[in-house]
Design a protein that fits this description.
Strand order of the largest sheet: 3-2-4-1-5-6
Shape: globular
Radius of gyration: 16 Å
Strand content: 15-25%
Number of helices: 6
Order of helices and strands: EHEHEHHHEHEE
Number of strands: 6
Structural class: alpha/beta
Largest sheet: 6 strands, mixed
């Protein structure tokens, strides 16, 4: 079992949310902390116990993981994992969404959300991300919590050809679940679920 979580909110409700990525290391808002705690309670209620926890190096993912792991019966220390780091939005980093759309166009943003095709100027290294996800998901044996960002999480689905109806986006405070079947095949059991 692999539970892929997008970190909690980093902007307050009603606050303009610019496009942030690997170069912008924001903390969780109080609502983001509440989302992370809700995830932790939800996973505990489901009886999901993790043998390993991997996180992006950014503080928003580390804080989300810590809140989730506080609800686990065993003490786990999250392992920083560079391939889970958010993508770099290049010239669009920390820019309002309207400016980003004006620069790249709505079609480029739609292609990113449907297919994971990076818009011009974004620094993604899609082949390396796909390889890292494939290597991990096909060899890992124990239930694992992976806490990352929307930009990085989508590559889990792309790596295994599991895109749910073309929607790659994972909302803040939401999770996806990939399970291993008895024959060893991986199956997408849930995506973009908020408890």
């Amino acid at each position: 079992m692999f539970v892929i979580v997008r970190h909690g909110n980093t902007f307050a409700a009603g606050e303009p949310a610019p496009r942030i990525g690997a170069r912008t290391d924001l903390p969780l808002t109080p609502a983001g902390v509440a989302q992370a705690e809700a995830l932790g309670r939800h996973f505990a209620q489901q009886g999901w116990h993790f043998g390993r926890a991997l996180v992006s190096p950014l503080q928003r993912t580390r804080a989300t993981a810590a809140a989730i792991l506080a609800h686990q019966p065993a003490t786990l220390r999250p392992e920083p994992c560079e391939w889970l780091r958010e993508i770099d939005h290049g010239p669009d980093e920390d820019r309002p969404e309207a400016e980003v759309v004006a620069r790249i166009g709505p079609q480029a943003l739609a292609a990113w959300d449907r297919e994971g095709t990076p818009p011009p100027g974004w620094i993604v290294d899609a082949p390396e991300r796909l390889h890292a996800w494939q290597a991990f998901l096909t060899t890992a044996a124990q239930p694992t919590l992976l806490v990352t960002s929307n930009g990085a999480a989508r590559f889990a689905l792309l790596a295994l050809g599991l895109a749910p109806g073309g929607a790659l986006k994972l909302a803040t405070g939401a999770y996806g679940l990939i399970v291993r079947e008895a024959d060893g095949a991986l199956r997408l059991a849930a995506w973009d679920v908020r408890p």
